[in-house]
Amino acid sequence: MMRYRLFALMLLAAGQGAASDARAQDLGTLNPKALPPLANPGDARLPAKQVFGRARAPAAMPAHVYGFYSKGCIAGARPLPLDGPDWQVMRPSRNRFWGHPVLLAFLERLAAHVKQTTHWPGLLIGDMAQPRGGPMLNGHASHQLGLDADVWLRPMPNRRLTREERETQPSQMIVRDDRLDVDPRVWTPDVMGAIEAAAKDRQVERIFVNAAIKKAICRDARGDRSWLTKVRPMWGHDYHFHIRLACPPGETACEVQAPIPGSGDGCDASLTHWFANGIIHPRPSPTPPRPKPPITMAQMPAQCRAVAAAPGQQIGER
Ligand SMILES: [Zn+2]
User: Fold this and answer.
1) Which parts of 118-239 fold into alpha helices (H)?
2) 114-145 per-position pLDDT tens digit
3) Distance of CA 150 from the midpoint of ligand 1 (Å)
4) Where are the domains of the chain?
5) Cα(236) to centroid of ligand 1, in Å?
6) What is the CATH number of domain 67-275+295-301?
7) Distance of CA 238 to CAs 78, 93, 181, 272, 316, Å?
8) Interval between CA 240 and ligand 1 midpoint (Å)
């Protein structure tokens, strides 16, 4: 078992290169640098990502989520152990292995199920949430409630990866170079099996995959196709898939997402549309769009300002 203390230093990293677009393929680091502290962290005009991106420990409060997947936070988040019986956490220096207890229980269940039903020895887990959720300095719009998790589209190896390997090893690109379909050399029944296992879990509300992966699933799924409804095409998501859990029972401040339109398998014109030229190869606009102003602390749910200000919970060795 890798010990939590090993990573104490790495937790100093709230982000490496705030300007970079941090995706699962981005490299982590063994020597993360702490961001300089904010002069006035209680200022409600601050971009929320500057506050939540600096949190190194969860708020010492009972586990609860507040707000929406792309504008919210979590109190009392728990860390997913970096090593489980059938999973390993990748890029731990990003400090995004936190989640609601239902997400941790789900990932444990999913990893065991995938090991039983595919040839994969287990799962490689990518980004979940920051210790207090909230917006991130780079990488994701959602993942703010501790109810989203990225799973790599590459099997866990049969051995424990070293710290350095976890920061540097790439995932597996599943989409073909022309973006129109999957790469048949790496698209296997086991890759689809991992996605299917997640989609069939009752706690799972949506799964995001690249449109080319959805297209392959539409072609290859046999028998019960009811799980295809939850698998939604999305840009990116070509070397990991994104799992979103529903608001857990009793989480009354968790904003429920609008239901998926229609109940079909999503293998219709709504999917074909993704392969239209302007969508798959978007033409750059002559005038670059003005970047959206970041969400400020004042715009976050009120409970999230309390979560941000709360004392940190000491998490012992795992
Ligand atoms: Zn994601």
Assistant:
1) 163-168, 189-199, 211-220
2) 999 999 999 999 999 999 999 999 988 999 99
3) 5
4) 67-275+295-301
5) 10
6) 3.30.1380.10
7) 28, 22, 11, 17, 35
8) 8
